[in-house]
């Protein structure tokens, strides 16, 4: 009986992936922003003001606002880099971020699409 339990535990340890460790180092947020064409002017103003304000935020290491070329000029990519995942969490809980998102949401043509992660070197 002991041998069966031992084999089971060993097989589980080999086949079950390890839980993700907390990230260390830079932490990235990439947001695809799709503004409604009818709200593009107002939405752009909000995005540009947000980007400019974040350049002075101590939690943000870098920020870029990229506008898609061509016929889809109402599509943007917002990239933000933070010192750590903890810095990102502090940042998104701030009142300024909450106000920005609340102001931007009515102008979105699709749901908020944010991807989070850290660099993986293997």
UniProtKB/TrEMBL annotation:
Signal sequence segment: 1-20
Protein name (record) = ABM domain-containing protein
What the entry lists under InterPro entries is as follows: Dimeric_a/b-barrel
Species: Acetobacter nitrogenifigens DSM 23921 = NBRC 105050
Enumerate the SUPFAM superfamilies for this protein: Dimeric alpha+beta barrel
Q: Which UniProt keywords apply?
A: Signal
Gene3D superfamilies in the record, alphabetically?
3.30.70.100
Q: In which domain of life is the source organism classified?
A: Bacteria
